[in-house]
Design a protein that fits this description.
Elements lengths: L8 E5 L2 E9 L7 H10 L3 E6 L6 E3 L2 E5 H6 L4
Parallel strand pairs: 2-3, 3-5
Antiparallel strand pairs: 1-2, 4-5
């Protein structure tokens, strides 16, 4: 059986895909689904949110953030 790719969260802005988010416990490498869907949906922002992350950073167009930093940045 073929594995079906999945994404964790998709944020939209004005009805259009804006950010794709993958959440992980500790791993800092995104799964293949993040790039798969980001490319097909034309998503501008790709985020990997990691619960147990020592240091945030970027890798190309991927932003890697610890969960508390990500959550503090969400509008209330």
């Amino acid at each position: 059986m073929e594995e079906i790719p999945e994404g964790d969260f998709l944020l939209t802005r004005e009805g259009r895909p804006w950010a794709l988010i993958e959440a992980k416990q500790s791993e800092t490498s995104p799964g293949p689904a993040l790039g798969y869907f980001a490319d097909r949906l034309g998503v501008k922002h790709r985020l990997l949110v990691v619960a147990n992350l020592r240091e945030s950073g970027t890798a190309g167009d991927l932003h890697v953030l610890d969960a508390p930093t990500f959550l503090m940045g969400l509008p209330v």
